[in-house]
Amino acid sequence: MYLMLLSVFLPILTGIWLLIRKEYAKRLRLLAVTGAALVLTGALTVSAFVTAYGSSFTLFYLTKTLPIVLAADEMSALFSCLTVVILLCAGLFSFEYMKHETNEKRYYGFYLIVFGVLNALCFAGNLITFYLFFEMLTLTSMPLVLHNGSREAIMAGLKYLFFSMCGAYMALFGVFVISRNSDALAFTAGGVLSETAGLHTGLLLTAAFAMIVGFGVKAGMFPLHAWLPAAHPVAPAPASAVLSAVIVKAGVLAVIRTVYYLFGPDFLRGTWVQTAWITLTLITVFMGSMLAYREPVLKKRLAYSTVSQLSYILFGLAMMGTEAMVGSLLHVLAHGLIKTALFLCAGAIIFTTGRTRVDELRGVGKEMPFTIWCYTIVSLGLIGIPPTGGFISKWCLAAGSLATGMPVFRWLGPVILLISALLTAGYLLPLAIRGFLPGADYDYEHLQKREPSPLMTIPIAATTVLSVLIGLFPAQLTDWLTRLASRLM
């Protein structure tokens, strides 16, 4: 139990300490403190599941009926393990990437605080605890967006804050409603609605939809998605990786907790809420892919890609079938690893060459072959080419959609996913093709190899290898996720 507490508060307190103390005389000391905090937090998080799995711990009471509770279950294990891997890889990458940036101490301070808040979200045992740390995540991650202090960064940070707060207040309406129609707010597989909830079905369905759309803001779901392509390009590349791979997953986790642990799938299945939710996810999948295809700036292209790919996950959850949910949870892992690798590759390219637009990267594969090979491999994973994790997750999503038997959506979903996959190939592969095959008129005589340092290449390689291993050896992972999904249905 105390390991859960330490995994949450150690990085938060360390981050606060970095923010309030004076500048370090030597940069190495700052990196040593940050690195030690990251590694120790990762070890504590993993250890918490070994020792405290299935248990809960009450921190304090906001009121007599509103406890703040930390608990460890299978869903929190999935999301917190992804958080640990991504934060460690992006943190190591930051040690090299951020040395030419200003205000490093502030960056690492908020980076550690975000790590602790993300762990708290994963370990939240009831709705009140989750909502409290969900709001804190917005406030603590915003400084990562506006880090460079430019007008564009400040406007993007304000847009992120405005959209996130609007979504949170929509969700708060649902919190009030469900608190009046449930016996408790502790996350319980199958839902917590009371026996008298049937008397207020219309209100509860409205509340459920408000919570799905409100929490879906963090996951970039249409129509409140515009903050995401504004925030990602202006943030430092490792912060963009964390935003795209983990912070947006907080919205996914919130929707899972809402649908499967509070209202219950039986209450929502076949209602207008499910129909509207599926419609919004499919619009987002297609729209995000199309906008990414037309975007010339590399990091912004990857940001639009995140808008699309996150709604793959939400689509599988909205189908409310076991196999579709397995596909969603697999895509949580696959997308997290792949998008981290893509943003780190983009950061390495920008750091090394200073180029930010895709049309400026002709021949970059000749200059940075290792980085662009990793980019190519994870791009194939995001498209859904075997043997990557992206193929397995998208296979399960399509098969799960067909298995539900829902009119129209059972076949429309896979069709939209296939179109989106073709668009994904269209916006990711040209960089690799023109990077490795620049043409006969390319200046080969003055070609200069300039791969980044191991502090950058090791995290890129690690996330690339892990994304492939999920696809090569999926059996045990899919069996575990199938058992988890079955219990929630």
What does the model show?
The structure is a single chain. By secondary structure, the protein is mainly α. It has 2 domains: 1-261, no CATH class; 269-489, no CATH class. It has helices at 2-20, 27-52, 74-97, 104-123, 127-145, 151-180, 201-216, 227-234, 237-263, 265-268, 272-294, 298-319, 322-353, 364-367, 369-383, 389-404, 409-436, 454-472, 475-488, and strands spanning 56-63, 66-71. The chain has a two-stranded antiparallel ribbon with strand order 1-2. A hairpin with a 2-residue loop joins strand 1 (56-63) and strand 2. Helix 2 (27-52) runs antiparallel to helix 3 and helix 7 packs parallel to helix 11 (272-294). The chain is globular.
Helix content: over 70%
Q: What gyration radius follows from the Cα positions, in whole Å?
A: 22 Å
Order of helical and strand elements: HHEEHHHHHHHHHHHHHHHHH
Termini gap = 29 Å
In DSSP terms, counting alpha (H) and pi (I) runs of 4 or more, how many helices? Answer: 19
Number of domains: 2
Mean pLDDT: 88
Strand order of the largest sheet: 1-2
Give the biggest sheet: 2 strands, antiparallel
How many beta strands in the DSSP annotation?
2
* Overall geometry: globular
Q: Kindly name the structural category.
A: mainly alpha
Strand content: under 5%
Low-confidence stretches: none
